[in-house]
Write a structure and sequence with these properties.
With 638 residues, this protein is an alpha/beta fold. The strands form four sheets. Strands 13-14-16-17-18-19-20-21 form an eight-stranded mixed β-barrel, surrounded by five helices. Helix 1 (5-36) runs parallel beside helix 6 and helix 2 runs antiparallel to helix 6. The structure holds ligand C2E and magnesium ion (2 copies).
Length: 638
């Protein structure tokens, strides 16, 4: 048999190339199976790089892809020599062979050099002669390319390599595009998660601040106690329960006495801090099913479920007693008293507003009658027409000059002669009857009418004193001054307008309360000096109930001290009161002050006071306050 050599070598070549084709097809198939369902982009880059490297027998394989910004491309995957250093690098779109491929959308391989102009050829030949780069074209976008650098056997990439790599690129581009789409979905999902997380954070913040808002709307900022709204809420809940169980509820309305003076003289900050301390003491008295709330100003309210009248009074006493110990505010020691009005559900009312207004009425009763606790009594309630109506009536009384002054004589303990008189406000209201000064002065003070009233009172008292001066003798008339009016910036100017006659001032005394001594000392001293310069005398009223400091008293131009009637009333039988009265008289005399005892109701008190050296006596024993006509008769009789 004759063997054709040429033929046999052809057959060997053919079977080699068939063998290689098979390997290549196998590799392509494997790659396709491996990445066809793969969605992890990094893994796809790795597989594609390794397979492509084997396919074209390259030393290095790289996958440059266009970036989202459309201005740069980045080597996203790679295998072989130096790939680690290159992967991750970004370059401008125009740069190098890649730039050429992006622009031409054609593959680059050495055969390309023949198509270039001489200039271009020179430029690219060295740099890119041993490189092959085929475009990666996705279904929707141009993705980038697959590049091989240097063949492992030192030869150059040929047309076959180009064809293989192009085929390979067309197969893997879809998988890469899919995985990139999935990646971008995942990225935006992550972004969404981030937003969701942020949103949750914001939501939390929102909940926090709405909680804070809710707190502010239900709690009082000064005392941290429930405010009026929360109190309404709690009481209506308690009333509903009491209605169902047929039980009762006690309500205490607690009002701090003279708090306005404290506020006016101490300043609002200190006033607030005192309120806060008071609230703390009250809070210690409250049990878990009870509500303590601040209604506003110096008013507190306590709701006591399951309490009958007797229990409520006991509890009210506890609230009063917890104030006994003095409060320290800055350098001042402050004694706080309170008055409590009591109303009981359902006996005194079934609605909140009814119960509140009745507790309020009882509280005013307590203030007015000098007892600390008063239970609502409907028989006395003919005056109760609501606070607002009272304010309107007081305004009307000022406009229509319904107020009057009555005069109570002060006599010399030694001679028994009338030495002066105190002017006391009186108001007969057609609808309310006689409204006591303790009540209407408070209403005037709290509603901006006290200045007008006081200037009227000073004018009226001065006119009266002038009349007495021309009739009988020179006699000072004392007018009570609210701290608010005295410390008003316009006070000096106003008083100059009223006391303008040469010796007018010598006909007046101003009674001021001890609480004034808490005011800004220099300003107070200046105002008092000015009053004195007009010839008016100054007297400290209700001495012993307030907050005066004797060291300060000494430095102010005060000439008289009136011991409060609470000490005088029981001094005959009460050794403690006697001691207070005795030492006050001594002390006052040492400071050069004369002493008045108010509220002298019986002869034994008068005798004791005379013995102790008291200078002046005022009280029902001598006379009740009376109209000017009656006062004239009284003097004539004397
Ligand atoms: P005050 O200035 O301490 O006046 C003395 C109060 O004690 C008067 O009560 C007087 O009637 C009463 N009183 C006098 N002697 C006796 C007594 O022997 N026994 C008893 N139980 N009471 C006696 P009133 O007139 O009810 O005045 C109460 C308070 O109202 C006054 O206390 C004063 O703080 C205030 N007030 C009265 N009129 C005015 C005014 O025109 N302006 C100001 N700012 N306050 C006034
Ligand atoms: Mg007085
Ligand atoms: Mg007094």
């Amino acid at each position: 048999m004759v063997v054709d050599n040429k033929n046999s070598s052809n057959i060997i070549d053919l079977s080699d190339s068939l063998q290689q084709k098979e390997t290549e097809i196998e590799l392509l198939q494997e790659t396709f199976t491996e990445i066809g369902s793969e969605l992890d982009l990094e893994k796809i880059f790795r597989i594609v790089s390794e397979r492509a490297m084997d396919l074209i027998n390259a030393e290095t394989l790289l996958i440059p892809l266009l970036d989202d910004n459309c201005e740069t491309y980045t080597y996203r995957g790679g295998a072989g020599k130096n790939a680690d250093e290159i992967v991750g690098e970004s370059l401008p779109l125009e740069y190098g062979v890649c730039g050429w491929v992006w622009k031409q959308k054609k593959p680059w391989w050495q055969g390309m050099l023949d198509e270039l102009s001489d200039d271009e050829k020179n430029c690219w030949e060295q740099e890119a002669g041993n490189m092959i780069l085929v475009p990666l074209q996705g279904r929707r976008h141009f993705l980038g390319g697959i590049a091989g650098l240097n063949k492992k056997d030192g030869t150059r990439f040929d047309k076959k390599d180009l064809n293989m790599l192009q085929l390979f690129a067309s197969i893997v581009s879809i998988a890469i595009e899919n995985a990139m789409a999935v990646k971008s979905i995942e990225d935006s999902h992550e972004l969404n998660e981030g937003y969701r997380y942020k949103l949750e954070g914001l939501n939390k913040q929102l909940i926090e601040s709405s909680k804070e808002l809710e707190y502010l709307s239900l709690y009082d900022s000064v005392t941290a106690l429930p405010n009026r709204s929360l109190f309404y809420d709690r009481l209506s809940r308690d009333i509903a329960e009491a209605e169902e169980n047929n039980s009762i509820i006690g309500i205490l309305l607690i009002d701090i006495d003279s708090f306005k003076d404290i506020n006016d003289t101490l300043g609002h900050d200190h006033g607030d801090s005192l309120l806060n301390k008071i609230a703390h003491r009250f809070n210690d008295e409250v049990k878990s099913n009870e509500t303590l709330a601040r209604l506003g100003g110096d008013e507190f309210i306590v709701v006591l479920p399951d309490h009958n009248q007797k229990h409520v009074i006991k509890r009210a006493e506890m609230f009063i007693n917890c104030l006994r110990e003095a409060f320290a505010i800055e350098d001042n020691t402050i004694i706080v008293n309170a008055s409590v009005g009591v109303a009981v559900y359902p006996e005194h009312g079934v609605s909140i507003s009814n119960l509140l207004s009745h507790a309020d009425f009882a509280m005013y009763e307590a203030k007015n009658s000098n007892v600390k606790i008063c239970v609502y009594d409907s028989d006395k309630d003919h005056l109760a027409q609501g606070h607002l109506a009272m304010v309107a009536d007081a305004r009307k009384a000022l406009d229509e000059k319904q107020f009057e002054l009555h005069y109570q004589p002060k006599i010399s303990a030694q001679s028994g002669q009338v030495v002066s008189a105190e002017a006391l406000g009186r108001w007969y209201c057609k609808d309310r009857g006689n409204v006591p000064p303790n009540i209407f002065i408070r209403v005037l003070e709290q509603n901006g009418m006290i200045d007008e009233y006081t200037y009227w009172a000073i004018e009226t008292a001065l006119a009266q004193a002038k009349e007495w001066k021309s009739g009988y003798s020179i006699m000072r008339v004392a007018v009570n001054l609210s701290p608010q009016t005295l410390m008003h910036p316009d006070f000096k100017e106003k008083i100059d307008q009223i006391i303008k006659g040469e010796s007018d001032g010598e006909l007046l005394t101003f009674e001021i309360t001890e609480n004034l001594f808490l005011s800004e000392f220099d300003r107070l001293a200046e105002v008092l000096e000015h009053i004195c310069s007009l010839g008016v005398e100054l007297s400290i009223d209700d001495y012993g109930t307030g907050y005066s400091s004797l060291s300060r008293l000494r430095r102010l131009p005060v000439s008289e001290l009136k011991i409060d009637q609470t000490f005088i009333k029981e001094m005959v039988d009460n050794k403690d009161d006697q001691a207070v009265v005795h030492s006050t008289i001594e002390l006052a005399h040492n400071l050069g002050l004369s002493v008045v005892a108010e509220g002298v109701e019986n002869k034994s008190a008068l005798d004791m006071l005379t013995r102790l050296g008291c200078d002046t006596i005022q009280g029902y024993l001598i006379s009740r306050p009376m109209s000017s006509e009656k006062f004239n008769l009284f003097i004539e009789e004397q």
